[in-house]
Write a structure and sequence with these properties.
Beta-Lactamase, alpha+beta, binds biliverdine IX alpha, 511 residues, 3 domains
Length: 511
């Protein structure tokens, strides 16, 4: 329906991935109206379940599927009326013969969407859903998010059999980092790498909050269109919650360029927001049947709960660390050597709570500095700019040169700034600096690797996507997070006291 513009980094977040209109070959799709008349069919239904769109569309579904199956589906859908997760039937004789299918059914607009997947050879673990329980119990043993993530990756790998399972955690700017990884030997490690936000565009992140698991069984498989493309009202079928939905061709190319043949990802949600993903890769095609995918989904839901617990524990820990920092700084203040002698130690203490690449302490027209900072003249111009910001507030920017254009001259040293006004008389500051984000973390997209180009060009390799993105974030540092801003606010109060005491001490010492 849409005139398809070429998708690039500036518009790939507008690709309408929920209405691309195709299914993958591991399942077929039937859509029916509220009165159970067939309105849409994927063309592979003909071979898979013997339903030919030409003859079936416009007829009652009851003419084509066994009554007991439809009855079970109806009652499941009724129970699930307000839930966004599909209703499921496993190991069903959906054609009235001995062939077994797993079935998913959900509501999409004025349609019910029914998806059937032939049950393959691979058997689900005999004790089914209960095998999840011991895996969840193992999570309780771990006290850090990283360890928890590693345990989670191990469990997903045990359940799914994928070659590589990663836990991918989103940052506040929607870029993401691989914080845990289990992989087959010989595969290039991705652990610790960071990927730009554009690799999982906004509409995909939104969809993955509602639809928590997607399987791309074979990036080279031929997809089957759902017919008709538009309903009588001229609308395409919304496939957001569909489990056989064929994914964005752009993303398929990205996967091919990464050497991935099958991919599965499972959302990790916290407070209704996308906290991260389990991202799984396989080097050959891989179908994980719906029953097993459901087990994995269930595991992920329980994992979410454990992550939420650990996450709030971690926030509490951060608050505690901030308080301990206060105490340590106050102890320093009792030291009679003055601020200058303590500057390095105090800087390191601050860095533990708010990471930075450079710091300047500016008081009584004196400048003390460490790390990446502007030079004295540049800094004095910055001070005049900071003096125009709201008094007694922490000022933070991840793109200083946008607010203060002269900063473009030292963008190689510094891109982001956080200034804490600390004096009684206007205005002394502790100023924290961050370098450009692209220089400061280990990003994916190894520049030494040769670029292999797919049909849409080299841009869709992790490296090229990274380079394009690097242009977008030029002159920006990693964001000052909410918890860092809060910490800075608290720190400012402490520092005022510390500086006061230390300068008094220094004044006394001078007398
Ligand atoms: C989707 N991108 C995704 C998904 C992942 C990633 C996990 C979910 C689909 C899946 O399960 O495969 C990204 N995968 C990664 C990353 C790693 C990984 C970062 O394993 C790191 C180890 N992608 C791009 C660019 C565009 C793009 C430049 O790199 C757009 C121009 C698009 N990615 C894109 C789209 C989707 C996607 C459109 C949605 C696919 C869909 O669900 O239809």
């Amino acid at each position: 329906p849409q005139t398809r513009q070429p998708i690039d980094l500036t518009n790939c977040d507008r690709e309408p991935i929920h209405i691309l209109g195709n299914v993958q070959p591991f399942g077929c799709l039937i859509a029916v109206s509220r009165d159970w008349i067939v309105t849409h069919l994927s063309t592979n239904a003909k071979n898979m379940i013997g339903l030919d769109p030409e003859h079936v569309i416009g007829t009652p579904i009851a003419d084509h599927l066994p009554k007991d199956v439809l009855h079970s589906l109806r009652s499941r859908l009724q129970i699930a009326a307000y839930s966004e997760t599909p209703s499921r039937l496993f190991n069903v004789k959906a054609l009235g013969d001995d062939r077994l299918f797993d079935i998913a059914a959900h509501q999409s607009g004025t349609n019910w969407v029914i998806e059937l997947e032939p049950k393959g050879e691979i058997e689900t673990t005999p004790d089914g859903v209960w095998s999840v329980q011991p895996l969840v119990a193992r999570l309780r043993r771990h006290d850090s998010i990283k360890r928890l993530a590693m345990e989670g990756a191990q469990a997903i790998r045990a359940m799914s059999g994928f070659d590589r399972v990663m836990v991918y955690q989103f940052n506040e700017d929607h870029s993401g980092s691989v914080i845990a990884e289990i992989k087959q030997p010989g595969m290039e490690p991705y652990l610790g790498l960071r990927y730009p936000a554009t690799d999982i565009p906004k509409q995909a992140r939104e969809m993955y909050k509602r639809s928590v698991l997607r399987l791309i069984a074979d990036v080279d498989a031929e997809v089957s269109p759902i017919v008709p493309e538009l309903n009588a009202e001229g609308q395409p079928l919304d496939l957001s919650l569909s489990v056989t939905r064929a994914v964005s061709p752009i993303h398929l190319e990205y996967l091919r360029n990464m050497g991935v043949q099958a991919s599965m990802s499972v959302s990790i949600l916290k407070d209704g927001e996308l906290w991260g993903l389990f991202a799984c890769h396989h080097r050959t095609p891989r179908v994980v049947d719906y029953e097993k995918r459901t087990m994995i989904e269930l595991y992920a839901q329980l994992f979410n709960y454990e992550i939420a617990l650990k996450d709030s524990e971690q926030s509490r820990q951060e608050a505690e660390d901030a308080k301990e920092l206060h105490d340590r700084l106050m102890t320093r203040a009792a030291d009679h050597h003055g601020f200058a002698k303590n500057f390095e130690i105090i800087s390191e203490e601050i860095r533990q709570v708010i990471p930075f690449d450079g710091i300047i302490f500016y008081s009584d027209d004196r400048i003390m500095r460490l790390g990446s900072t502007p030079d004295d003249d540049q800094f004095m111009a910055l001070i005049r700019f900071l003096n125009t910001t709201a008094a007694s507030n922490v000022f933070a920017s991840e793109a200083l040169s946008e607010r203060h254009p002269p900063a473009a001259d030292y963008a190689n040293e510094v891109a982001g700034v956080m200034a804490l006004p600390i004096s009684r008389h206007p205005r002394d500051y502790i100023v924290l600096f961050r370098r450009e984000v692209a220089q400061s973390v280990k990003w994916a997209g190894n520049p030494e690797k040769p670029v292999e180009a797919g049909p849409n060009g080299a841009r869709l390799t992790p490296r090229k996507s990274f380079e394009a993105w690097q242009q977008i974030v030029k002159g920006q540092s990693t964001p000052w997070t909410k918890s860092e801003r809060n910490a800075a606010e608290a720190l400012r109060i402490t520092l005022i006291e510390v500086v006061l005491k230390l300068s008094d001490a220094a004044a006394i010492a001078r007398k």
